[in-house]
Amino acid sequence: IQMTSQEGHTWRLIVDYVDEMRSKINAGCLHLESWQVASYTLSLIFLVLYILDLAASEKGVVERIRARMFYILRSLPWVHRRLNEDLARAKKELEEEVHSNDVTRDFYKFIPERGLGRDEIRAEAELYRAMGRNRKEIVSERKTDAVVHEISALFGGTNPRDSHSFSGCRKMESEIVRMSLSLFHGGSTSIGVVVPSSAESLLVALSSARSLSARQSIIHPTVLASAAAAPALFHSAKLLGLRVKVVPSKRDGTLEAATLKRFITSETALIFVSAPNHSTGTCDPIDSIAKVALRYHIPLHVDCSLGGLILPFIELCDYGFDYGHDFRLPGVTSISIDLSRFSACPSSCALTLFRDEQMMKAAVFPLAEWPGGMYSSPSLSDCLDGSAVAAVWTTLLSTGKSGFMEITQKVVESTKKLATLLAEIDGITVLGSADTVMVAFETEKPYDIYHIIEAMRSKGWPLHPLVSPPAARFNMSISLARDDVVDAFLDDLDTTLVHLRNNPHLGESSASRAFHQLIATAADRWLVRELATERALAHYSVPLPPDNRKSLRFSVEGRKLSMVSDLMERRKEMTKE
């Protein structure tokens, strides 16, 4: 290949420039010794690598600088003192919110000296059950409930992970996996594991991706996901030391394949998609994202924890749309399913399914140096509740495909009906597709969405807030999937909207609105994390009763203060007799 005169002239200019720069560098380093040149070179290399690492991390350089500035600001004495006062006040308010349904604020703080009787325990349990019970939630008695509880009781105290002692329960677990794989079109080499919760199902999938990335010498494995993904994803990633890169999404929280492609790097260990997501209940375009994952040889995880077994049966019900969410897509490598949501299973149980055994092997933790011999576990829990496994197994067999199709039709039809009627209300806009198990909607003035949520909650409706964008979401459970319940919800909502129209100042003075605006707009995210931490701790707080009487510092037969008075009255009656 002959080079033209113009190209040859360009290359000569480049060579001359490089030679000139080399001469200047050598002249500038004449006074340096060899060890100094080597140390300066290594320092420059490490500095460049550090800057590149910062640029590729979850928190960018600007965000890190901002966080450091806020940390210094919080360290100032007067700022620190003011923050502590505000957090103490917020802590008290959060405790009041958590215990708002507990009228007596009377707690068991000691184990009873003598065991309580069956009637006493049952009476206490009924009181606890009534606390905050959603009066709109209709408890449906299905014909399979009796047999589920019966079989579940037979396997109480068993552990399917101990295959020698509880072989039958182990067989149940493997059959649950195989039946679920058939629904999600797994092949003969597909495999899975039963875990206690949907959070752990994500942990298992991420553990597999991390192990596979280590084999490829990826130093900082990164997960690509939408901000609308399950919160358990971010928690599991933190536990495993994985980075989560939040990819910009559409308003309904779904990802786009073209946008996702721009964020793929050599550090990408997993692509995480939702079917549906936890923000608006909309499914990501998994078919197009699966093509991207397959092209770049990146594992793709599909999170079905919100919908459970709804999606496979939506397809069987022939609603006219295909989500493309399972192993029929070549790029899908793992799927997580929550069996306790819309699978009618009474116990908390979830699944992680893998396309092949190699993915599963990467998730298994083997220990060869244990003094007790060989040890291995496919999940974080080395012990699994056999009664929960038996309940899931019985539910799948007793409900059957026809039963699950009936459940799916009720849930989907109720969801679509609610979304359609909400869209007809002036000032309300439905977010997302609203065609699976969730309806999300936002409002326009004069309606404040957070005041609406607060008012509807006071009427017993399970309405939950969204911060970005400001909206509300309604999860359609099996017991709520009824026409009369949907109509009752809309009637209460209409009453709330009329009240807001007549009193527009209520939305502006809403404490809930101020709180959620703080969460959305706070520049220092440390404050939001601190409030979230206090909210978690409030679950285990033991505040004083409303009348501020001091609780007993000792126990009377281990009973609560409210029970002591009843006990004294009984003893007086016995003495009179």
TrEMBL record:
User: Is Lyase found in the keyword set?
Assistant: yes
Principal EC category: lyase
Pfam families xref list: Pyridoxal_deC (PF00282)
- Coiled-coil zones: none
Task: Provide the leader sequence positions.
Answer: none
Obligatory cofactor(s): pyridoxal 5'-phosphate
Q: Mind listing the GO molecular function terms for this protein? A: pyridoxal phosphate binding; sphinganine-1-phosphate aldolase activity
- EC number, as in UniProt: 4.1.2.27
GO:BP terms for this protein? Answer: carboxylic acid metabolic process; sphingolipid catabolic process
Provide the alphabetized UniProt keywords: Lyase, Pyridoxal phosphate
Q: Name one GO cellular component term.
A: membrane
| Family indicated by similarity | Belongs to the group II decarboxylase family. Sphingosine-1-phosphate lyase subfamily.
Q: What is this protein called?
A: sphinganine-1-phosphate aldolase
Query: What is the scientific name of the source organism?
Result: Pristionchus mayeri
